[in-house]
């Protein structure tokens, strides 16, 4: 492993991916952010699973070969659900860094982030905003899935058929 840069392939057919955390513990903070988004709206988890299966069927998910990872798909799903252009009359998810910076962000001490992640129920009162933010909640899963399909998958195929 003289020229080791993070990925190691062994002669026995196994491989390993080693990552060293930065001094800001960004991976832990990202986990905290994703957990908050998943707790905001149950549709996020379901849409993510649908999209992951779809991207598998399209053979465009495999980060080992430079394709999309599950984390990329999750971020695309969150971004889409925050987009005002894609969903009417309002987005499904807020931008938590703007609306609830007291729950997510680099300024929160890492010990507080870890405590939040260790708790079984999540932060108390974190999602009192969800009902007001989503309005009547009339955007059902089928409409969200169709909107994501047309926005990302059809758009992706159209952009790459030159």
From TrEMBL:
Gene Ontology BP, a term: RNA 3'-end processing
Domain of life: Eukaryota
Protein name (database record): PAP-associated domain-containing protein
Molecular function per GO: RNA uridylyltransferase activity
Gene3D superfamilies assigned: 1.10.1410.10, Beta Polymerase, domain 2 (3.30.460.10)
Biological classification of the source: Eukaryota, Metazoa, Ecdysozoa, Nematoda, Chromadorea
Organism: Heligmosomoides polygyrus
């Amino acid at each position: 492993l003289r020229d080791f840069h993070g990925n190691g392939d062994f002669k026995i057919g196994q491989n390993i991916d080693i990552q060293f955390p930065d001094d800001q513990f960004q991976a832990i903070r990202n986990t905290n952010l994703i957990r908050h988004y998943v707790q905001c709206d149950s549709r996020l988890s379901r849409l993510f699973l649908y999209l992951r299966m779809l991207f598998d069927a399209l053979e465009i998910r495999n980060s080992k070969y430079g394709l999309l990872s599950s984390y990329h798909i999750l971020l695309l799903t969150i971004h889409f659900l925050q987009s005002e252009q894609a969903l009417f009359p309002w987005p499904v998810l807020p931008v938590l860094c703007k609306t609830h910076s007291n729950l997510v962000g680099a300024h929160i001490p890492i010990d507080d982030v870890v405590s939040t992640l260790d708790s079984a129920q999540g932060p108390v009162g974190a999602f009192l905003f969800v009902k007001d933010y989503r309005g009547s909640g009339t955007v059902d899963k089928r409409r969200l899935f169709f909107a994501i399909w047309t926005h990302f998958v059809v758009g992706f195929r159209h952009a790459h058929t030159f």
